Amino acid sequence: MTLTKRIIPCIDVDVDEDGNPAVYTGVNFEDLEYTGDPVEMAREYNEAGADEFVFLDITASAEGRETMLGVVEEIADEVFIPLTVGGGIRTKDDIKETLRAGADKVSINSGAIANPDLIEEGAAAFGSQCIVISVDAKRRYDEQGEHYVEVDGESCWFECTVKGGREGTDLDVVEWAREAEERGAGELFVNSIDADGTKEGYDIPLTKAVCDNVSTPVIASSGCGGPEDMYEVFTEAGADAGLAASIFHFGEYSIREVKEYLDERDVPVRL
């Protein structure tokens, strides 16, 4: 049986000047622009036919604070599709509290790299299906990596970064994806800092490199400019889900339009 491809809108949430949660959209993880209210946007995407919904607290890890669980609770009351929450999750208790607030899954990046045992602890306590390991990948054109691909005639590898892409780790994304899978991650969330917000398409070499080396479902993220980019990441890279923000946030395409485009091209989706 062929599994349907999932279309997932994502909101990046920070606090505004008045201390209220707000959705922001940027390019390459920078130049953030106010986009809307997180609870209102979650409600709209639930009604629009999204397969899942992702809430990322984009400064929690960098600022060393906890995730906005109050906002998570409000969103959980509005959406009736799987909800993934990420940002500032560092311990098993953080996972527990986030799930208790209404999340179906947690997305962990910095916390898992700092303490890889957290993946096993979370999977054992709450089930692998709850544990999504997120990677914020950045291309490097040096000899420090382990898994290389050709991009525009040059050999590069992909480095895991932390704290919202602000710090490198010297950790190879493909090797880390394999380890995360072995430790019990139920899903991998692959973000490209190089493609983020560009609307020039997903980072196909990055996504394909991960998909080719794991059997765990992979969510492709960063760079989607339209339905054709979703088609490409599904058919050329093998992603299981396509995540997008800007094209949905600014009304350039509806989730229905993306799904109809894919369905017309024999990509299995839930209409």
Structural class, please?
alpha/beta
3D shape: globular
Q: How many whole angstroms does the radius of gyration measure? A: 17 Å
Number of helices: 11
Q: How would you name the CATH homologous superfamily? A: Aldolase class I
Instruction: Quote the average pLDDT.
Output: 92
Roughly what fraction of the amino acids lie in strands?
Answer: 25-35%
Q: How many strands in all?
A: 13
**The CATH top-level class label:** Alpha Beta
Give the helices and strands, then pairings.
Blueprint: E1 6-15, E2 21-27, E3 30-36, H1 38-48, E4 53-57, H2 60-63, H3 69-78, E5 83-86, H4 92-100, E6 105-108, H5 110-114, H6 117-126, E7 131-140, E8 149-151, E9 154-162, E10 167-172, H7 173-183, E11 187-192, H8 204-211, E12 218-221, H9 227-237, E13 241-244, H10 246-249, H11 255-264
Parallel strand pairs: 1-4, 1-13, 4-5, 5-6, 6-7, 7-11, 11-12, 12-13
Antiparallel strand pairs: 1-2, 2-3, 7-9, 8-9, 9-10
Helix pairs in contact: 1-3, 8-9, 9-11
